[in-house]
Design brief:
heterodimer, A: alpha/beta, two-stranded antiparallel ribbon, 8 helices, 33% helix, globular, disordered N terminus, B: 705 residues, alpha+beta, 8-stranded mixed sheet, 21% strand
């Protein structure tokens, strides 16, 4: 019976691709959300209205996430953003059924061990935010401006590799976008290629 | 175990071996293989390849990996003169991961690469080194790499992996037999592909669609196709987070149970919306505002501003060079009607209605065409040589009438003439229509920004902007009708009117010269000469029809000759007015280079400032700026000292790339003058009525950051 239901569901899902990954589009209002962070506190996008918000999809089990944490690139980007008064929400959309899943306390501990500096880390274990934003990879980066418009979607940088040495020569798209916003300009490169592991949603 | 592997994966290359051809991890067995059945002889097939055997449920990726993942990369180290080609990727399969879909391979895979030997290849063996990177995934992903080495003998046959190579070639997508089409539909939310020449056995079956580049389509979306005989059509959903805007894209189609897919080359018709937010067009930074005092200052302006701009811009249209002949027509209209207040007001209202409705009709047509995926913008009418020729004919007829060669009354059927006399309102209305037909290509100050903004609005609001533009244009005339004081300031009717009428024929003829030149730009000198031929025949025919011959035979004879001449000249002219091949002669091609987005990017990368003149032969404002401001010696000297690159984007004929760039700048017509600085994607836009000082100031600002 259960598997029948699952079959029906996955058929539905296959027939309606829009349902599986909603299509947050650059230039449109960013999808609202409300979810608990690693400390159990409820965090909403609306809480941060009036500020620029960066969303970072993270999964400590992914080698591409490790590339940017082991090289301290992600932490430096987070600290740079914090210095400009930008809110940084790391989002873990790994489903509890997946091997890579970390409990909230484990996730908080991992972020701490990495010396990471996000405003907070969100536990999107059911993948609701991930699906609403269409997050495909870890890392996958989004920026919401002070008016609540999605102004950037894409990769952390322009060197899609797992080699940490590439960080030095790559163009950091998030830093560039934040600089554009700080200068009151539209984001020059508003959509780029995200790269990395797939986000570990359920049914996978 | 897995966790350990994961942590090792990044730290260590999977294997670093000196002279081995194969590498084994828990997930794959990878081997460098060769195929040279005739030994190593230049001109004979020589192939290298990386064979990958995946552990069950593990996969590696295709050239477009889909939603996540990375393609396998091969870096060859070969002796001098020996070159390796691109990977001949076998047909991929869809690999769903939850709501995501990847494109790649499971099981046994061979990635073949053709090798070219130099003609004088004499070595005893070919020493090959390969550094390969692949990402192998199941529910977790592991980046791996291997260093391989292989010695291929020159004089012996190497065919130990013949079966694997044969299988890889059999799985190579075959090029489609006939061309494929693709167009953007549903506001660029889907790509409608129409593909013929697919294998006959596929008919009626469901097909899978694989785009060869990652940044365009929604990989996970199910593509539902329709078969119409031998043709397959489908709407492929575009990703909401698209990051590429190709005009051309390769794709592979497959159906279950076949080894090889079919590869098609899709020329994509229709304009991609700008990648950045449409609501905040990339116009300029506040720091640049000083360079553009009026035209583009307010970037995200609301509907009210757009309406105000449209109203003012419309009024200014009356003063633009290309509208002046029409203005003179209206002045004549005043002179003719000044005696009756009622006729004056009625005419004014009818004229205004003609102007406003024409603008709305043109805008409606443009919106309809654009939503149908046509790459056009404001002024699109004049991109058609047929329309330009028709305008030239119309102006000639009007000029000859004003000059007194014939009277409309004597050639129009008596019914129509009577109608015209009895309905001066209809006459005024048509004058309004005529005014819009000629005025529309002139993008006056304020209009560029308003029009570009208008096309980002819902259709109803866009039409409102255009209606306001028309109202602005009709306003001065209407004002004179409403306040008799203004009308009384006009001279009293009298004998001077005959002289005035004749004199007004000459601005009309001057306009014909301009239109002939535009047609010449579009179709070459043959088209322009043919147009002049038609105009001469037309003048003769009008004169013949307008003759007051008492003798019926003579009248028929003159009329007959007129008709024959006109017919002959049209037969000559019409084929030459097809859209042309000849590139427009820009003359000063040494300083100005043709525009392309790539050229701008390349010059920016070199650290140069780039000035782009978006222009068209049919845009008089553009031509005035080109002859005066852009030809100014002081300006050109400054351009030289600052090493500014001058690019010209000629929109005389339809050009999808230019339309796209204009859309990206938030504009919909020409002229547009843009200064691109190194390291900045968004250019500074200058006002449409360009002065030397404005350009000099803008350039001076460029160098002081």
């Amino acid at each position: 019976m259960m598997s029948m239901k699952k079959l029906v569901l996955s058929t539905l899902v296959a027939a309606l691709p829009g349902v599986t990954l909603a299509n947050a589009a650059v230039g449109q209002p960013a999808p609202a959300f409300s979810v608990t962070d690693t400390s159990g506190k409820t965090v909403s996008l609306a809480d941060h209205k009036g500020k620029t918000v960066v969303l970072e999809w993270v999964n400590p089990g992914c080698p591409y996430v490790r590339k940017h944490y082991d090289s301290a690139n992600m932490q430096a980007t987070q600290k740079g953003a914090a210095g400009q008064g930008v809110v940084w929400l790391a989002v873990n959309s790994t489903h509890p059924s997946h091997y890579d899943y970390k409990k909230p306390a484990e996730m908080a501990a991992w972020m701490k061990s990495q010396n990471a500096a996000p405003t907070t880390t969100l536990m999107d274990s059911e993948g609701k935010i991930g699906r609403a934003y269409g997050a495909r990879t870890t890392p996958h980066m989004y920026i919401v401006d002070a008016k609540g418009t999605l102004v950037y979607a894409g990769g952390i940088d322009d060197k899609p590799s797992s080699n940490p040495a590439d960080v030095k020569t790559a163009k950091n798209h998030v830093n560039a976008a934040l600089a554009d916003l700080a200068a009151g300009k539209p984001v020059a490169q508003a959509a780029t290629r995200p790269y990395g592991c797939s986000v570990k949603y359920s049914d996978g | 175990m897995l966790r350990l592997l994961l942590s090792l994966a990044l730290a260590l290359p999977a294997v670093t071996a000196a002279q081995i051809a194969s590498v084994k991890t828990d997930e794959v067995r990878a081997e460098l293989v060769a195929h040279a059945p005739q030994g190593l002889v230049a001109g004979q097939p020589v192939w290298l390849g990386l064979a990958i055997e995946h552990a069950p449920h593990w996969h590696t990726y295709w050239k477009n990996p889909g939603d996540s993942g990375l393609p396998t990369t091969l870096n060859w180290q070969l002796p001098a003169g020996v070159t390796a080609g691109e990977i001949a990727w076998p047909t991929p399969t869809r690999l769903p991961v939850g709501p995501l879909v990847n494109y790649g391979y499971e099981g046994k895979l061979l990635l073949p690469v053709p090798v070219t030997l130099p003609a004088d290849f004499k070595a005893e063996a070919l020493d090959v080194k390969l550094s390969a990177q692949w990402l192998v995934c199941k529910d977790v992903c592991i980046p791996q790499q291997g260093e391989f080495a292989l010695r291929v003998p020159a004089k012996a046959s190497t065919a130990g992996h013949a079966a694997a190579f044969a299988a890889a070639w059999a799985a190579q997508p075959k090029d489609a037999a006939t061309a494929a089409r693709a167009e953007l539909v549903d506001n660029a939310k889907a790509l409608r592909v129409t593909i013929g020449g697919l294998p006959e056995a596929w008919r009626g079956k469901e097909l899978a669609f694989f785009a060869e580049i990652a940044g365009v389509i929604e990989h996970a979306a199910k593509v539902t196709g329709r078969w119409d005989g031998a043709t397959w059509q489908a709407d492929v959903p575009i990703s909401a987070q698209r990051f590429e805007s190709p005009t051309q894209m390769h794709a592979v189609l497959t159906t279950p149970g076949v080894a090889a897919g079919t590869r098609v080359n899709l020329a994509i018709a229709g304009a991609w919306p700008a990648l950045a937010a449409a609501a905040t067009p990339a116009l300029q930074s506040p720091a640049d505002a000083a360079a553009t005092p009026v035209a583009t200052g307010a970037a995200p302006f609301g509907l009210a501003f757009a309406l105000l701009f449209a109203l003012v811009g419309g009024a200014l249209l009356n003063l633009m060079p290309c509208v002046f002949p029409i203005l003179s027509l209206k002045v004549l209209g005043f002179a003719g009607h000044a005696h009756s207040r009622r006729a004056l007001v009625g005419g004014g209202i009818a004229y205004s209605a003609g102007v406003v409705l024409s603008f709305v009709a043109l805008a409606g047509l443009l919106i309809a065409l654009k939503s149908g995926g046509e790459q056009i913008g404001w002024g699109f009418q004049l991109q058609s040589p047929g329309f330009v020729a028709a305008l030239a004919v119309l102006f000639t007829v009007i000029a000859l009438n004003l000059a007194g060669l014939f009277e409309f009354g004597s050639i129009l059927p008596s019914g129509a003439a009577a109608l015209r006399l009895r309905h001066p309102m209809a006459d005024s209305f048509l004058t309004g229509v005529l005014a819009v037909a000629v005025a529309s290509p002139c993008t006056a100050p304020f209009m560029g920004a308003a029009l570009g903004f208008a096309f980002t609005l819902p259709a109803a609001q866009a039409l409102l902007v255009f209606a306001t533009l028309g109202a602005g244009m009709a306003l001065p005339y209407l004002a004179m009708c409403a306040w008799p004081g203004l009308a009384r300031a006009m001279p009293k009717p009298g004998a001077w009117m005959a002289t005035f009428k004749s004199v007004m024929a000459f601005p009309m003829l001057a306009t014909v010269v301009w239109l002939t030149w535009v047609l010449g730009q579009q179709t070459g000198i043959d088209g322009a000469a043919a147009l002049l031929g038609v105009l001469v025949a037309l003048a003769f025919a009008l004169w013949a029809w307008g003759r007051v011959d008492s003798e019926r035979g003579a009248r028929l004879a003159w009329n007959g000759i007129g008709v024959v001449l006109l017919g002959l000249s049209l037969a000559w002219a019409l084929p030459t007015w097809r859209e042309a091949q000849a590139a427009p002669a820009t003359g000063d091609s040494t300083t100005w280079q043709p525009w392309s987005a790539e050229r701008v990017a390349a010059l920016q990368a070199e650290g140069r400032i780039v000035f782009v003149d978006f222009t068209a032969a049919w845009c008089v404002t553009c031509q005035v700026n080109k002859r005066t401001t852009l030809g100014d010696a002081r300006l050109l000297a400054e351009v030289q000292t600052r090493k500014v690159a001058l690019l010209r984007a000629d929109w005389t004929r339809r050009d999808a790339a230019i339309s796209n760039e204009l859309a990206r700048l938030g504009r919909n017509g020409v002229p547009v003058y843009a200064i691109y600085r190194p390291g900045q994607a968004a250019p500074t836009l200058l006002p449409e009525l360009l002065t030397v000082q404005t350009v000099l100031n803008a350039l001076a600002q460029e160098s002081s950051p």
